[in-house]
Recover the amino acids of this structure.
């Protein structure tokens, strides 16, 4: 049962969003109409993500798509007394309708990782799903911001880019790999060790979105705490292995669905704020980049009306982080190349 204080905080979050908008100069004019489509809405991440997007006051139209089960999720979520109209679409023949007019498309579609399964095992199934969905996006909503959650993100983002290039609709400013869960974990774990309130913590996480390609920059964490080197090493490892920690704790019956839905909703909210002209919206994301020699890389990104307004540099790194950066590059490079190769088969 949901406790009353949580309900109050959810309500106040929705109200805060609305009042923040009126402060943003939308008080005299209506909040912009924004359509968000969730592809894979009936899945383990998709359902809680659909709930969280229904609670977001910036969404006016919520389009839920999956191969099956979506009408039920849509009916359930549609009873929540918030602004957005909800429609569920199921089956490939309804994918176009689900996407038409979308401002933001979130893709949690795919199969989850099971125990003993590497991210590579996921690859062929999820890569095929992503290719199909991105082909439809290029046709029905080529100007939407695309938030890629489907793993392995290090490969699925390059796949999406290739599909869009082939269709002639690629815009590097509008394609994002959602790495927010790495940031959420890094903040949580750091706050625990630094003994500071987690709400005020910030930790940039760069690189990619799998294992050693995840590089939390604890040297840049705020508020500053003088943690020992061995603590930083352990925090880095825990952030990198966060997904495995959850898979093991669920004893093979699931993966990180709830925390991923939260992270996905946070990043989508940042995209919507950027589209609506809110200044200084900065989040980490895996995007086309010249920050390193790799074609895609996660770092801080300033979001705006066109999607990516600016890809920010890495800032000063500790020796440990410099070493981590060099170690992750070969693995990230091979994941990117694997995605490009798959898309061009």
């Amino acid at each position: 049962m949901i406790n009353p204080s949580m309900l109050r905080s959810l309500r106040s979050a929705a109200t805060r969003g609305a009042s923040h908008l009126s402060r943003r100069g939308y008080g005299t004019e209506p909040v912009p109409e924004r359509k968000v489509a969730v592809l894979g809405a009936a899945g383990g991440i998709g359902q809680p993500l659909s709930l969280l997007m229904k609670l977001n006051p910036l969404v006016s139209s919520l389009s839920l798509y999956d191969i099956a089960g979506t009408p039920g999720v849509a009916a359930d979520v549609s009873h929540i007394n918030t602004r957005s109209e909800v429609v569920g679409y199921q089956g490939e023949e309804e994918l176009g309708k689900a996407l038409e007019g979308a401002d933001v498309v979130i893709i949690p579609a795919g199969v989850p990782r099971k125990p003993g399964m590497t991210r590579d095992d996921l690859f062929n199934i999820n890569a095929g799903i992503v290719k199909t969905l991105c082909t439809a996006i290029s046709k029905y909503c080529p100007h939407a911001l695309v938030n890629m959650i489907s793993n392995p993100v290090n490969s699925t983002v390059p796949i999406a880019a290739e599909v869009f290039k082939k269709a002639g609709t690629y815009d590097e400013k509008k394609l994002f790999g959602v790495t927010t869960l790495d940031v959420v974990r890094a903040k949580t774990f750091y706050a625990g060790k630094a003994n500071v309130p987690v709400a005020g913590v910030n930790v940039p996480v760069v690189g990619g979105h799998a294992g050693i390609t995840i590089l939390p920059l604890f040297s840049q964490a705020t508020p500053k705490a003088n943690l020992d080197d061995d603590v930083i090493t352990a925090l880095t490892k825990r952030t990198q292995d966060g997904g495995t920690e959850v898979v093991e704790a669920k004893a093979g019956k699931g993966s990180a669905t709830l925390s991923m839905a939260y992270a996905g909703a946070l990043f989508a909210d940042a995209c919507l704020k950027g589209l609506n002209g809110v200044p200084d919206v900065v989040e980490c994301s895996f995007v086309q980049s010249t920050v390193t020699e790799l074609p895609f890389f996660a770092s801080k990104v300033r979001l705006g009306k066109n999607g990516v307004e600016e890809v920010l540099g890495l800032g000063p790194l500790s020796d440990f982080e410099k070493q981590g950066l060099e170690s992750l590059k070969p693995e990230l490079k091979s994941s990117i190349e694997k995605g490009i190769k798959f898309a061009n088969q």
